[in-house]
């Protein structure tokens, strides 16, 4: 992580560094106006610690080789890997700015003098590869005398400098690999607490590996209702919440949470884990030995890097484990803040639109209607049935044709009936002859038997003759054939009582609705409605309910009741049998009630079945 520092002109290096006073490069620095000798404060990223260590070691090696090195510098596009010469030596900085632009892949080494005076220092610039993968330019100011051996020694020592920079890069890469491995173990857990426990155990093990002599305890507090609560601890599955150690650690965690920054209060060290600008957890470390020194820098680097990477994962995991009610409450609070807080114009516009829609749904009354399948029927209807079992011999009419009373509609096959007529006629004649003979012989017994045979034959003959008379199906009244399309079934059998034709009068029609049983309680005589027919969807017809029957039947898979209605106004020129959709106006209600009634009724019925 790159930190920022405030650098002033002629700032001195740390005491533990053998480098001369240096300055991180800050391009475009302002100059004092009107001769003001004021220090210019520029906030720039501080150089990487690995760079300072490498340049310090490189200069030490040059000095041990007998090379008089006055100052070193590094130029890079990344400010963390850049180091300037001391600003007090303006001639050196001007020469450095002119010389470093001459270094390229084709010309990796450039030489120049600092100023034009005799015996001035020599400036040498060389290209090196930085740990970031980019190319940088390292510069060194060499005191006289200058010779070829000096240049060769500098070039030979560059190998050690390049190796040191590569080692710094290796440390960064190893830390990244270990962080990814740690996050992989954390992400494989089954709960937020298990993930937190895995994280703090592995982080503690990593910190102890960086500092083998470290003897410290690691505890993680979670923030709930703006208070730190003990969550997990390294190498410990649980802890006594009222113990003095936990209580003291909680006080340090509270201070870190309130200040939202690191707390280094020997022997305690605390780091708040921030998410969205708010603390969500606090990592607390305690030295177990009273006289122990502060945490080593490498341990602090491990704890900061691991905490910054683990915080989002632990926070989202813990949020996901909350109950549905907590999620709903948080969503409601978030929406409320967006609606009534500053900004979030889209939410405010959406809320206004939703409020307007709800107002329309709840306050705008509309007609409450019951929808039902509808059929047009004649005011008077009669059905023509098959008088006996037989076969269709002739069909003279089809549906939608007008017929008059007594008109022949169809004829059944009567050939077998005529044969039976001849048979029973012959039997009757034979019985009549026997009767005459018995009367001539004055045989009373024979007369009785013959008389019975005659009567039986006449009865059979009368039955056959009545069937012959009914073999022709005739219209019982003037009207219109509504059903009975038998033209394609000539020669087919029919049963006794089979409905052959339905005749309806043409003097008037009535509307018959099949109202589902869930809506029949709201339909009453006298209510009005409108009708649209399948064949005339562009036209509506008004009707009025006249009768609600108490008998239910199933039509098209729906159980319902027959409701009859009359036309309002003139009877339209329609035909019986036409179908459509009718809507009966049963009152007034808001749109929300109309649209959700069926769903609410279904839910009520299900709840009733479940609970009772």
At a glance:
This protein has 612 residues and is of the alpha+beta class.
Describe the fold and architecture.
The chain is an alpha+beta fold and 612 residues long. It is 39% helix and 29% strand. It is built from eleven helices and 25 strands. It has helices at residues 49-64, 90-100, 148-187, 192-210, 244-259, 297-320, 324-340, 345-363, 415-441, 444-470, 591-611; strands spanning 4-7, 42-45, 69-75, 109-113, 122-129, 135-142, 216-224, 227-233, 263-265, 268-275, 278-287, 365-378, 381-385, 390-395, 402-403, 408-412, 472-474, 479-483, 493-494, 499-504, 509-516, 528-533, 536-555, 558-567, 579-590. The strands form six sheets. Strands 12-21-24-23-22-25 form a six-stranded antiparallel beta barrel. The protein has a five-stranded antiparallel sheet with strand order 8-7-11-10-9. Helix 7 (324-340) crosses helix 8 (345-363). It is rod-shaped. It starts with a strand and ends with a helix. Residues 1-43 have low confidence and may be disordered.
Task: Output the keywords.
alpha+beta, six-stranded antiparallel beta barrel, five-stranded antiparallel beta sheet
Q: How can the largest sheet be summarized?
A: 6 strands, antiparallel, barrel
Arrangement of strands in the largest sheet? 12-21-24-23-22-25
- What is the radius of gyration? 54 Å
Counting H and I runs of at least 4 residues, what is the number of helices? 11
